[in-house]
Amino acid sequence: MGIDGIGAIPQTNSAYAPRARSSPGAQAASPSQLTPQEQQQVQKLRQTDLKVRAHEQAHLAAAAGLAIGGAHFETVRGPDGRQYAVAGEVGIDVSPAQSPEQTIDKARRIQAAALAPADPSAQDRAVAAAAAQMAAQASAELQHAQADEAADGQDNGVAALLRQDGQDEGTKRRDAIEAYTQPKPEVVSTFSLFA
Predict the structure, then answer these.
(1) Residue ranges of the domains in the chain?
(2) Could you give the angle at the alpha carbon of 67 between the alpha carbons of 6 and 123, nearest 5°?
(3) What is the average pLDDT score of the chain?
(4) For residue 22, what pLDDT is reported?
(5) What are the DSSP calls for 149-181, one per residue?
């Protein structure tokens, strides 16, 4: 059971492997023809089948627009001759979007789809973690781009102020250096009653 965003293959529980008496063309056995142990095995397979299908349906419902096809199930033939789902997966597009903002939104949707079932599998949690990492990376890219834009805007503002003064940046720097290297004027103490 799981969401396939990283490429893991679901594992089959070997306790539910097909029995030798179930050939591909075998007819479904009626419950009265099954031993108590086989009836118990069929009941477990039915429960597993329902759980697996509900799990994958939760992924599909939350994956709106991200699912690649429908759910895929791995099945086994039970002692009654019927096929039961014992594992499943839903393919999800986990590629980054066109912009950091879109990637952050997509990553949140991937996380929601991965963690949608009541009992997320280890694969589901791994996909959610990868989506969180993708969102963090996109957020860092967005902050870096915003900082670059702010710095470009600030640099342009300084240049505009210098042009307004009628001096270029080189002249301002030269004047500042000269002001620090020239001898300081002598300060004369004065006393004022009006101060």
Answers:
(1) 3-19+30-143
(2) 30
(3) 77
(4) 40
(5) HHHHHHHHHHHHHHHHTT--HHHHHHHHHHHHH
For the chain, what percent of residues have pLDDT higher than 90? 53
Given a cut of 50, the residues of the chain with pLDDT beneath it are: 6-26, 187-195
Tell me the torsion sign for CA atoms 48, 52, 53, 55: positive
Helix (H) or strand (E) holding 99: none
Q: Would the pTM of this model clear 0.85, i.e. be above it?
A: no
